[in-house]
Write a structure and sequence with these properties.
With 414 residues, the chain is α/β, with parallel strands linked by helices. It has 10 helices and 15 strands. Helices cover 24% and strands 16% of the residues. The strands form 2 sheets. It has an 8-stranded mixed sheet with strand order 8-7-9-10-11-12-13-14, covered by helices on one side. The chain has a single domain, classed as Ribonuclease Z/Hydroxyacylglutathione hydrolase-like (Metallo-beta-lactamase, Chain A), CATH 3.60.15.10. The protein is globular. α8 links the parallel β11 and β12. It starts with a helix and ends in a 12-residue tail after the last strand.
Length: 414
């Protein structure tokens, strides 16, 4: 073996070792992966009826809650295609070919100082793409699953679609409450939490997720953890309330504040290759004297939607997951027709499709989710009296709207 070849081989070996060591250190110590629950949270997790001693469990038997290589390799790549083939070689125009036209955000009052007073009025909503929605009720500003960066722990891949006006954490006013549905990267954004932590009053998170936020600099006093069907009044020093099944009891303590309740979904969690389902996942119910909102988070279709609808007496508006689906994992992500049925089941008067329009997380065309859910509701509404119909709100990203002035333009067809 020549001296030069030996040097090359040694160089390659050193490179492999360095890259491997860096990868191991990154996976073990990078803050984006979050933290481990403390003893107090661990005690609550162990006591949860939804924890089997090792992991949290769904109410309905669920598959595809961990990585299954067959999901990526099965299928005839020349016909319907396997997932890996479709992702590496996507069909033409699968993603937007030019920046999506969005509305510039003007959510902070011109005279705002350190508290970043919002211009948003009670009863107004603004969709910021994917599952991020900002809204205001009873003088309380609420933000769901704030994600403004890549949906990945790495600095490559899964970046947001190009937009004419891309929402950012800097655009956010002071937020009284942030609601987190679960800890997947397209719902819990490390960089966004770091940017928002100083202008958020309180974070409401599933069991086990508090440790992530604390590692990212959020004080423990500003975080409350919830099991399914636990509630709290925003801004009040109250212990969590375990609700009964009665509609009247759910509304009894909502006089001048805003009540949030963490409710079940059919999904899973985890920010590492291993360790799935060690933190809880779910949806949120928000109730004020003037408004009732359901935020679905992520999940497959299940009978629990109907239970939630009965328990809370229906909703003025429901933010329903509609995107990143595939037949291979429909247990944990609904198809659009199932999303429509979920909106029907929870008793929503208006449905805002979310979880689409920002990231490429599956094999479907970027426009397909909203097309299919609208078609499903058109079929449902046909022949029904006007008061029985369900409206579909389709705002542009960044567009402020109210229930009295719903946006319905098919802007994605432009």
């Amino acid at each position: 073996m020549s001296h030069l070849l030996l040097l090359v081989l040694i160089g390659l070996l050193i490179t492999v070792v360095v890259v491997g060591l860096f990868s191991l250190l990154f996976l073990r110590f990078a803050p984006t992966f979050g933290g481990k629950p403390d003893a107090q949270t661990q005690s609550r997790i162990q006591a949860s009826a939804n924890f089997d001693g090792k992991t949290f469990t769904n109410l309905t038997k669920t598959y595809a809650s961990t990585v299954d290589l067959s999901l990526f390799t099965e299928g005839d790549s020349q016909k319907q295609g396997n997932f890996l083939w479709q992702f590496i070689f996507p069909p033409k125009d699968k993603n937007p070919v030019k920046p999506i036209v969005t509305q510039p955000l003007q959510l902070i009052a011109a005279n705002a100082h350190h508290d970043a007073t919002t211009t948003l009025k009670n009863g107004e909503f603004v969709w910021l793409g994917h599952s991020t929605v900002l809204f205001r009720t009873a003088d309380t500003t609420i933000l769901t699953d704030p994600v403004f960066h890549r949906a990945t722990p790495l600095s490559i891949g899964v970046k947001p679609f190009a937009m004419t006006h891309t929402p950012s954490a800097n655009d956010m006013p002071f937020v009284d409450a942030v609601l987190i549905s679960h800890d997947h990267y397209d719902h819990l954004d490390y960089k966004a939490i770091k940017q928002l932590r100083h202008k958020v009053g309180h974070f409401y998170v599933p069991l086990g997720v508090k440790a992530h936020l604390m590692r990212w600099g959020v004080p423990a006093a500003k975080i409350s953890e919830f099991d399914w069907y636990e509630s709290a009044i925003i801004g009040k020093d109250k212990d969590h309330i375990n609700n009964s099944t009665g509609v009247e009891e759910n509304k009894a303590d909502i006089t001048d504040g805003v009540k949030v309740t963490f409710t079940p979904t059919r999904h899973f969690s985890g920010r590492r290759i291993q360790g799935h389902r060690e933190t809880l996942w779910g949806s949120w119910v928000v109730q004020s004297p003037d408004l009732s909102v359901y935020f679905s988070g992520d999940g497959g279709y299940s009978p629990e939607f109907a239970n939630i609808g009965k328990r809370f007496g229906g909703f003025n508006i429901a933010f329903i997951e509609d995107g990143a689906y595939n037949e291979r994992w429909r247990d944990v992500h609904m198809l659009p027709e199932e999303s429509a049925q979920a909106g029907i089941d929870v008793g929503a008067k208006v449905v805002l499709p979310i979880h689409w329009g920002k990231f490429d997380l599956s094999t479907h065309h970027w426009r397909e989710p909203v097309r299919r859910i609208k078609a499903a509701f058109d079929g449902y509404n046909a022949g029904k009296a006007e008061h029985e119909q369900i409206a579909v709100a389709t705002p542009r990203i960044g567009e402020v709207f109210s229930l009295q002035d719903l946006p319905t333009s098919p802007w994605w067809e432009e």
